[in-house]
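Task: fold both queries, return tokens.
Query 1:
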Amino acid sequence: MMLSVEDLRVYFSSPRGDVKALDGVDLQVSEGEVVGLAGESGCGKSTLSLAISRLIYPPGRIESGKILFQGNDILKMGPNEFRAGYRWKKIAMIFQGSMNGFTPVFTIGEQIEEVLEIHQYAGDFASRTKDLMKMVELDPVIAERYPHELSGGQKQRAFIAMALAVDPPFLIADEPTTALDVVTQVNIMNLLKRLRKEKGISILIITHDLALLSEIVDRAYILYAGRMAELGTAEQIFKEPKHPYTQGLIGSIPTLQSTKIEGIAGFMPDLANLPPGCKFAQRCPYAMQVCGKEEPLLKETKEGQRVACWLY
């Protein structure tokens, strides 16, 4: 197993009490597997990616749980040990809005070479940078340009190149297609598919766009209000969703057969004042009396999916 997150709880202190961004989350990614994590804004997706990267800082804190990477609990490591042995070398990340993350006063090549220097890359920096540009289908001359000279898609590809600078086996892509046009979104996803095939890296893709996920992932997790609502293979999640929340997400995507969009009524609950029972009950068209009293646990269905819903 490449990555195993077990009963992870991440809380943020606030004047109103603890905001439970993640409250008992499990997630696994096998070697060479592409896993998707989906849910609406504020459900805890980016918090999970930051926790795996050890980038949770006050007022946030990892309350409890384990994050096992290749069998080692990275939460038990000191900051220096994790930074030297894992961050970027083994666990790299494409941050949400990363195409705006380049320093404007340095060229793309200079910023990639800084990563190579920090992580003590043994080869020639200029040659490696050129190879990385080709890997993400950019002209090597792009390395000599400043960020403002690149299009959004070029900057996103350049950041992917920087994330892969020292050949990490695991890549987190947090909303990698945000603010890009539809054609560029498809190109970025095709690039990630090609990198997975050629380099065998494991990828965790985080997005609210289920249509994009359906094109690339092996398995998908659906997150709601800091808890897992459903998980299964890509075919199960996208063709036979079980949880009413997953069904709502799927229903909000227009298709060639129908352009009718059915949104999910209501809003996600306040994570600092969560209601009892199922956290989706107030928005669920199938809610029963038990839903408002007892929280459902993830249970395996006869089809092999796992869903946290009293309907099953």
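Query 1 returned. Query 2:
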Amino acid sequence: MTNQNKIAVVTGSNRGLGYAISRKLSQIGIHVVITSRNETDGLTVKQQLSSEGLDVNYHILDVASDESVRNFTQWLTDTYGSVDILVNNAGINPTVQPEESSLLTVKLETMRSTFDTNVIAVLRISQALIPLMKVKNYGRIVNVSTEMASLATTPHDFYPLAPSYRLSKLGVNGLTVLLAKELHGTNILVNAYSPGWMKTDMGGEDAPFTPEEGAETAVYLATLPDGGAQGLFFAEMRKFGGPIQLPW
């Protein structure tokens, strides 16, 4: 399948990393469906990318809402009939809140809402779109995670404790492994990656790298050849000059 025949959905693609991923995918000829909770923001991005001659569309999507995902899936079915790529980028990070510095002070309602957006929503949209990938027996699912969710390195890493964010991304990693296991033998490949610390609303201006750099591994995983990586966890490519696996 050529890039020109592929349809990609990128969640939370109206800014930051999601915008950079959408732009890069479009630049290599993939038709990208921009999504956002705020319709005005999403339509603005669609207009920006279209003005560059890029092939994009837009539909409102709140991945934390059953109704929104149902409506979005029906629109995709009616408009395209199938989907080839899903990048689960939408997420929240409450790490800046002072109570997130300790498991003893973290607010359980914050942890619950973070899990709803970062984990349950990923499963919700994946459940909805995998049947549209099975139409052509082709799919690439890219789950945005973080090095902070590597259990192998957590005991000695230098990152903040950030319990709500870390544990939610551990959930994303678990979903990645289980989905890959369930889809074994199909041509639907599921992987996770860490985009690193970027200059986004979430990462802040002190971050050393750009969203464009953070998007590189997402594009690599979204365009894997048949028989490519399945159920693995990757680092940002700029760090090593190529795709490198991270320990779970």
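Both queries returned. Flag for query 2: The beta strands are 7-10, 31-36, 56-60, 85-88, 139-144, 188-193, 233-234.
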